[in-house]
């Protein structure tokens, strides 16, 4: 799905000659990943705070999963020296609420 963007999830399994370029229909049955998405639920929607509220968390729906991953990464990856990733060298063309404009960034 990361190699070619399609308008809907069903389009990844289409046999239409114009839209078909993926190996997904030959390898994965369509109903299985779609049923997994329907039943995947990580956090309680009753505690969801809408955008603009004081306690709003942009990743509230996946917060327990992110917290679990962060804890596991801290257990597994313990660098022996300081690690620095230069964000100015990574161009990003997508949309995100987390983006911050950096006027001095070399690659835009």
Can you describe this structure?
This is PiggyBac transposase uribo1. Residues 1-107 form the PiggyBac transposable element-derived protein domain. The chain is an all-alpha fold and 108 residues long. The protein is 25% helix and 0% strand. It has helices at residues 24-27, 31-39, 63-76. The longest helix has 14 residues, at 63-76.
Number of beta strands: 0
- Determine the structural class based on helices, strands and strand pairing: mainly alpha
Mean pLDDT: 76
Rg over alpha carbons: 20 Å
Spatial separation of the terminal alpha carbons:
25 Å
Reading the helices and strands in chain order gives HHH
SS element count, helices:
3
Beta-strand content: under 5%
Question: Key features?
Answer:
25% helix; mainly alpha; extended; 108 residues
Write the SSE topology.
Blueprint: H1 24-27, H2 31-39, H3 63-76
Short overview:
This protein has 108 residues and is an all-alpha fold.
């Amino acid at each position: 799905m990361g190699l070619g963007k399609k308008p809907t999830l069903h389009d990844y399994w289409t046999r239409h000659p114009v839209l078909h370029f993926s190996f997904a229909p030959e390898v994965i049955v369509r109903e299985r990943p779609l049923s997994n998405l329907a039943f995947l639920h990580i956090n309680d929607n009753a505690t969801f705070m809408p955008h603009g509220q004081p306690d709003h968390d942009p990743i509230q729906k996946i917060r327990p999963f992110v917290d679990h991953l962060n804890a596991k990464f801290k257990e597994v990856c313990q660098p022996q020296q300081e690690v620095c990733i230069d964000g100015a060298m990574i161009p990003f063309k997508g949309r995100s609420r987390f983006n911050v404009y950096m006027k001095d960034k070399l690659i835009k």
